[in-house]
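Field notebook, page 161. I keep forgetting to write these up properly, so this time I am using the form the group agreed on. The chain and the ligand, protoporphyrin IX containing FE, are recorded exactly as supplied. Prediction of the bound pose follows.
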Amino acid sequence: MTPARMQLVRDTWALVLPIQQQAAALFYERLFQIAPEVQPLFRGDKVEQGAKLMAALNTLVLSLGRMEQMLPMARELAIRHVAWGVQPAHYEQVGQALLWTLRQGLGDAATPEVMSGWAEAYGELSGAMKAAAYGDAPPSATAAAHAKVHRSSEAESGERS
Ligand code: HEM
């Protein structure tokens, strides 16, 4: 990503920060509209969940241009997502809901260049997460094994293989 684009992402994130609670609520509303099948995966408190999402995005913005610093966190987070039932295709839907939310929140500031910057930033992070959790193609044995360990306390009928 070019330094100019990174700056656009940082500048527009500063506009979203003051309205982050509304942005998080809007994000989940949109996500469950375009991907209702993922709603049951979210079992925790929605407000808390929204705050964690915004914190993760904040880390992303702060780490722009230093993706390698984010990689350990991204990998660990991605593997936990496998345990929650998240599949590779969901990253595309989450990305769409995120970009849509940013467009709503930013209004006139959501120029094509700004939106491309966000798409690129999300693409880099989600790409790293997917690679860590699922490998290049099907879910890797490692991630699947991890998922089983993390889910062992939950009552789950039917094994994932
Ligand atoms: C770049 C992409 C993503 C980021 C940065 C992200 C970030 C996070 C964070 C920070 C948490 C909280 C972790 C914790 O509680 O310790 C979380 C939880 C979760 N995320 Fe994501 N996430 C991403 C993609 C996705 C995708 C694609 C899905 C698919 C629907 C998803 C579904 C969930 C679920 C189900 C939880 C657990 C919710 C609960 O406990 O109820 N996430 N995510």
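OBSERVATIONS:
- Residues 138-142, 152-161 have pLDDT under 50 and may be disordered.
- The two ends are 37 Å apart (CA to CA).
FOLLOW-UP: compare against the apo run.
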